[in-house]
Design goal:
Layout lengths: L3 H21 L20 H17 L8 H15 L8 H7 L6 H6 L4 H23 L12 E3 L11 H21 L4 H20 L3 H16 L4 E3 L1 H12 L1 E4 L2 E6 L2 E7 L4 H5 L7 E7 L5 E2 L5 H8 L6 E7 L10 E6 L1 E4 L6 E9 L2 E9 L7 H5 L8 H14 L5 E5 L8 H8 L6 E8 L4 E6 L10 E5 L6 H11 L4 E4 L7 E7 L6 H10 L11 E2 L4 E2 L3 E10 L15 E2 L37 H15 L1 H17 L3 E3 L2 H25 L19 H17 L1
Parallel strand pairs: 12-13, 13-16, 16-17, 17-22
Antiparallel strand pairs: 1-23, 2-21, 3-10, 4-5, 5-6, 6-7, 6-8, 8-9, 11-12, 14-15, 14-21, 18-21, 19-20
Helix pairs in contact: 1-2, 3-6, 3-9, 6-7, 6-8, 7-8, 14-15, 15-16, 18-21
Amino acid sequence: MDFKLFKEMLKRILLVTFTAAVLACSAAPKPQQLVEGIPNIKPDEQQSLVCKEIVALIENYNYKKLTVNDSISSLVLDKYIKALDPYRSYFLASDIKDFEQFRTTLDDAFRAGDLSAPFYIFNVYSKRYNETLNYAMAHIKDKYDFNQNDTYVFDREKMPWVTSTAALNDIWKKRVKYELINLKIAGTAEAKNVETLTKRYQNLKSQSSKLNNQDVFQMIMDAFTETIDPHTNYFNPAKAVQFNEDMARSFEGIGARLQLENDVLKISEIIPGGPAFKSKLLNSGDRIVAVGQATGEFEDIIGWRIDNSVAKIKGPKGTKVRLKIIPVGQDMSSKPVIVELTRERIVMEDQSAKKEVKTIESNGKPYKIGIITVPAFYADFKAANAGDPNYKSTTRDVKLLIDTLKNKDKVDAIVMDLRANGGGSLLEAIDLTGLFIDKGPVVQVKDLKGNVEVSSDEHPGVAWSGPFGVMVDRLSASASEIFAGAIQDYGRGIIIGTQTYGKGTVQSSIDLNKLVNPSILQRLASLVQKGAPGSGLTIKGGKDTPQLGQINLTMAKFYRVNGSSTQHKGVMPDITLPSFYPMDKIGEDTETSALPWDEVQKSNFIPVANLAAVKPELVKLHDARMEKSLDYKVLIQGIADMKKRDLETSVTLNEGKLKAERDSLEAKSLEKTNKLRASRGLPPVKKGDKIKKNEDFDFFQDESLRVMGDFIQLKQ
């Protein structure tokens, strides 16, 4: 969808708003309530201006067409407090009672650019945070009885706020004991464990002391915009640079997306093609507890700021980094695994679609099936606009792969693997669909005025007309859902996997600086002390121009050609496989502020085939296989075990019991692995053995190929 004219309209209208706001921002700010005993972080005029304009943008141009009111104020307050202290480990009940004074006033305050309340809340949090760390460090050297049968409640999200400092101290003393037990079970000496934990808490205090008002402002705006909808986001100047680099898909590092969970850095996604992906040594969910360079000591990064941890992991192409990993599914007390990787330049546009050919047998007959893995919907728009006839794009790469599969490999069917494909270029989703259908509508887009625009494949002919399947999972989103939905609606192929993510909204990135007259930005610069420590003012270039950041604003929704939105519901597969990812924690339907599912009028499209009679037969054959499949049974049990562990909120502080639990889990995991290996004719492995790459088994892919074998025979 082309938002050029729409953004021009925004530019004209918002210029007036920004001008008025800047002229008004010289008024004396509301005095901020101070917190004794700490250096108080305060907002500045630039942040006040940006806050006012974000309110104006949301109220005038967000797809929801809402007014920021008392109800939203209440939700923002709760979200902000939860973001600061999700497991209720720092704030006291008296603090929460104090914050109630702001429950219905944040809407008016934000509209006026008054950030004193959320900055005050943060300063209270900062004081509590440092008090608890000081207490914890003072008790690391205490003598602990690791044979007691006490427990540590690590997840207090649904418990009452602690009413006294003494009760909070008791929680933290148990946390110290738990972390010491973890280190002890991992096999290190007591003196070393005390040193490691002391450094860990010192690092936490150090990172906390480095926070500035831009960090605080980002947290406040995150709570605000995420209350509006999950994909409307403000990025302060530093975050905007980071976001745009990510969108450009170009950086030097190991090729993994990271997130913080309970003060531990976790791998949330392995980027296809990067060093982490190629090594086969890392997985989503693995936790990184320490980082070392090619030589030298490891640095314990538990509790570090994520940007500081990432800075240690990223680095120049060709250099080495070492990571201490606690693999997904293992307890934090497990002994870390050391992984060494050589950093590379990760250029996401160059992440090409890839193919492989596998042969499966169905009812005694062999079939060759081509698998095309598409990691993202990419396109080198810069090269395309420059007239480069060989510019890279998903569609061009897939077209070449199809030609090879069809003419050289002589495959009987093709499967498109869109698992973990979070989307990308809408144009590529449309063009890629065109390789499998003749001319016709692919997606509909409705803007905030209610106008519906139909985007179609305009290229006659198809690249592949044979049996076709699409693999999806819970992480298949946005453009992936447009493609899979169109294939399903046209009856062009079979969708196999789990319900997709459900991101059916369109965002437009708006650089706030481009909405403001440069002379007015200069006036703003004069209001802020340039170069002041902790200042939120970001100066770029030699003209001292303040950088205001950018906002990604939800401005439209996607709809399938059958009229159904991909929002919230995503795409439901024809053949359903179990989801390794928790469906109740990942997906648009888990976001309380997500836009609802709805429909528009069906577009004028002509299905390629009617698969209504075939699909029930495919389901019967699939179900019959699953009843006999050991892999399926093990997967179902693994998912159930994971759900059970996710419900746990406490852990024993008895060393013997904790070690026995860990050993039991490791033994069960090894037994499960060897049962599966035996079923495939492979020799057993021992504890600590590494499984060879050529022995990896992709159950989801294998079953998808067997479904395609059934599909070929039913069509015949």
